[in-house]
Design a protein that fits this description.
Shape: globular
Structural class: alpha+beta
Low-confidence stretches: none
Mean pLDDT: 97
Number of strands: 18
Strand order of the largest sheet: 6-7-13-11-12
CATH class of the largest domain: Alpha Beta
Helix content: 25-40%
Number of domains: 3
Largest sheet: 5 strands, antiparallel
Oligomer: single chain
Strand content: 25-35%
Order of helices and strands: HEEHEEEEEHEHEEEEEEHHEEEHE
């Protein structure tokens, strides 16, 4: 980072600023280099103020939640990474329909568990998914025929030009594993969200959770990964195409295409981001050669590649 810019950041953020901050521990794959600078936001208001200050200074930044859908380069990230740790959560049973309001640094699992205890149904499909609520909305996460946009009633965003705004679900313009924000079509960050639910018996919700946990355990590998690597192409499955290309179990360094589910790439402990990226390139090239399908990443590549 330019020394003048770094000096400006020191003046603006003081002791909050962490320089040359390693990022691997903040990602589910446990790989990646350092950010020039790291700032932690512990409330939605602090997240908004941090983003606005960085925009005003024309400093590039990226908001990182649970790090479950990003692959960070071994060379690290230029600019600032803002770690979203805003985690307030409120259950609103008097709303019609009942809702949960949460800041976007809250883990998706914490939202699921609060919903279960309150007898609120609709988010069971997300049980066991890593990452934060904000990341799940940003990428319109989904599994087992559910997706985030189905639950979103409203989001609170901070827009670079217009400040705090309330958006309804349609304004997020979500598609399959994407949104207006992921497509970089708006300069805004998500501060909090209101999710809508249906009332149900706690025992019935818990039974659905158990079925989902069993299915996830049977079909998805344990270990450090980013979840699904590629989007499923229309009418097919990325995992099936990678398996048909003969790549299940292939390793580069300490990274492996899972023998259980070929759309999961596992870090066995000492993998680098470059190892995983080499597997990505291999899968895309081989699947294109054998089936004519160009696999599209579901994750985002972050940093210098």
């Amino acid at each position: 980072m330019d020394p003048v810019m770094l000096d400006s950041l020191r003046l603006a953020f003081g002791k909050r600023l962490q320089e040359n901050a390693p990022l691997a521990a903040y990602t589910s794959a446990r790989v990646g280099g350092a950010a020039d600078a790291l700032l932690v936001a512990r409330s939605a208001d602090e997240l908004a103020a941090t983003a606005q200050q960085l925009w005003a200074m024309n400093v590039p930044f990226y908001v990182l939640g649970g790090g479950s859908n990003v692959l960070i380069s071994d060379r690290g990230v230029r600019g600032v990474v803002v770690l979203n740790r805003a985690q307030r959560l409120l259950v609103r049973l008097d709303d019609n329909p009942p809702t949960i309001w949460a800041e976007t640094g809250a883990s998706l699992n914490s939202v699921v568990q609060r919903a279960v205890r309150a007898g609120l149904s609709g988010l069971e499909w997300a049980a066991g998914l890593p990452g934060t609520l904000g990341g799940a909305i940003y990428g319109n996460a989904g599994a087992f025929d559910g997706e985030m946009i189905q639950q979103v009633q409203q989001v609170e965003v901070w827009h670079r030009q217009q400040g705090r705004q309330a958006w309804n679900a349609d304004q997020l313009a979500c598609g399959y594993r994407t949104s207006l924000l992921k497509r970089k079509q708006a300069e805004a960050i998500i501060l909090a969200a209101t999710l809508q639910f249906q009332r149900a018996e706690v025992t019935a919700i818990q039974a659905r959770l158990e079925r989902i946990h069993r299915k996830r355990k049977q079909t998805q590998p344990p270990g450090a990964s980013m979840g699904s690597m590629f989007k499923n192409p229309p009418g097919d499955y990325a995992g099936r195409l990678i398996e048909a290309a003969g790549l299940k179990g292939v390793r580069i360094g300490d990274a492996e295409i899972s023998p259980l589910h070929a759309n999961f790439f596992i870090n066995h402990g000492r993998a680098t981001a470059s190892d995983i990226k080499a597997l990505i390139d291999l899968a895309q090239r081989t699947v294109a050669e054998k089936s004519g399908v160009q696999l599209e990443l579901e994750i985002e590549l972050l940093g210098e590649w």
